[in-house]
Amino acid sequence: MTLQFPEVHRLTGGIDIHDYRPAINASGDKVVFERTVKGRPTELYIIDDLASPVPRLFLPASTGPVNQTRPDWCWTSGNIAYNGSSSEKPELEVWIADDGGNTFIVPGIVRAAYPTWIGGDGQLVVMNADTNASPTPRNSIFDQSGTTIQENVNGIICTGRQLYGGMPAACPLSDILIAFAGQPNIRGWNGSAVATYNQNANYIFINEMDENGIFTSRPIEIDATIDQFDPLHQGRAPAWSPDGRTIAFESNRSGNGYAIYLYDFISGNITQVTDPASNAQHARFFPDGDNLILSLNYNGTSIIAWINVHEARRKLTGAT
């Protein structure tokens, strides 16, 4: 049976232009994303009106780091968290910009990727690769002064083993519920001779915290084995719907390229919403929960686009 996928609505595209990792604003009418033009550093661009998409440079060169990646838009304040680096300071740092392009660096956080807002505008959960604690990487929560709030929100799995974790996504209905791309800290995972993180051999995990403040996590797919990697359950880059009901994530489980899947938090059902041939990645929900902004391949380059997933979400819940 041939799968039918939602129509793709293209927003960007051009020769020698690579657009990636979009984030949408609280009104659902603007998108910020990273753009790499051949021979230039990666910079944040913005589309001010999705109805008439004209990308422009978001940050003047004098106001931020040379390389700008992994934006996340806070729907409470309008601020954008992102990663910054340069040839002089190659380690990823966390920066924040307001909608006017004014920027500041979050002090003391280095080797931290995918900064994501949690609990409104006050805190950030990041993929923390700093070696001051283990395992590395793990997902940590910081405030905007760089103070550590939670060193490791991944915790352990049911076997008692710790988890590597990255690409965190905070549930909008909880200050502590995190979906992330993770794997157990064990040797032999995906054939590795040593315990090491492999971003291509992850499952999507969800954490929880007990009354004693202890974190545990489980794969969202109950058939995913935790003693050996099963590529049929591979997943990364999760994103929550605004109502906390659905998680969008990317997976190469078909072996034919990355596609976007939706997971229903209540029923546990999963459905595929893009063709692997398009290599769709880094999907985020619009505020209405009916649409996804994402990046995908088109005519040999990477573009920003959106799709409608209202019907797919409805079917996930079991509605007829």
UniProtKB/TrEMBL annotation:
Organism: Brucella cytisi
Family, as annotated: Belongs to the TolB family.
PANTHER family in UniProt: PROTEIN TOLB, PROTEIN TOLB HOMOLOG
Domain of life: Bacteria
Entry protein name: Uncharacterized protein
SUPFAM superfamilies: DPP6 N-terminal domain-like
InterPro entries reported for this sequence: 6-blade_b-propeller_TolB-like, WD40
